[in-house]
Design goal:
alpha/beta
Length: 206
């Protein structure tokens, strides 16, 4: 498919042909869901921990004698049913990661790119370079392109001025092409690719 290239100022800069194997697939929600779930699981810290009966600071002595009281038989006051006792089956420190085949991950990225292309939420920009690191000027340029909620993907290196200028613009994320991922693509309304990013993606999936 052919898509027009624009500049940051909104001028026409020609056209680029996008590979149908990357940008022309029919998006599958099940694959996208699997990849997003895998990404979010890897991000979880897993440092939540409740104190079990072996962790609470409380006496381990038998509460009262076994027989003759007419009450139920109990041993330690650290048992979960008592106030101040340990938590039964509480959360423990663990990793939430799970495996996902590389082919599924790669396919998920292709489907995310295709989803943006199909919904006309994909813009290709000639170059992500600005003369000065001025947030106001860049915000005006992006507003002129209709970008209020977008993920901007540059080449292997992001222009330092562009990165600094975009830092304080709300709902605008900037990543180099090697950092592109399904979750960030889907959480933003529009995907903005530089010409260098398009070339890198097509080389990656060749």
């Amino acid at each position: 498919m052919d898509i027009k290239i624009t500049t940051l100022s909104g001028a026409d800069a020609g056209k680029v042909s996008l590979s149908d194997e990357i940008f022309g697939l029919e998006p599958r929600e099940d694959i996208l869901q699997r990849v997003v779930r895998w990404q979010l699981a890897k991000k979880q810290q897993g440092t939540h921990q409740a104190k079990g009966r072996s962790d609470v600071a409380r006496t381990g002595a038998k509460m009262y004698k076994q027989k003759g009281t007419g009450r139920a038989r109990h041993s330690s006051a650290r048992a979960p049913q008592f106030r101040g006792g340990g938590k039964a089956h509480g959360p423990v420190v663990r990793s939430h990661e799970h495996d996902l085949p590389k082919k599924v991950r790669a396919l998920g990225l292709k489907h995310a790119l295709s989803a943006k292309a199909k919904s006309a939420s994909l813009i290709v920009v000639d170059d992500l370079v600005v003369a000065d690191a001025k947030t106001k000027a860049l915000a005006q340029s992006l507003a002129g392109l209709g970008l209020t909620n977008a993920l901007v993907i540059g080449g292997a290196e992001i222009d330092a001025n562009f990165r600094m200028a975009a830092t304080n613009i709300p709902n605008i994320d900037v990543l180099p092409v090697q950092g592109i991922n399904v979750y960030d693509i889907l959480r933003r309304g529009t995907l903005v690719l530089s010409k260098a990013a398009v070339e890198a993606l097509e080389e990656r999936f060749k």
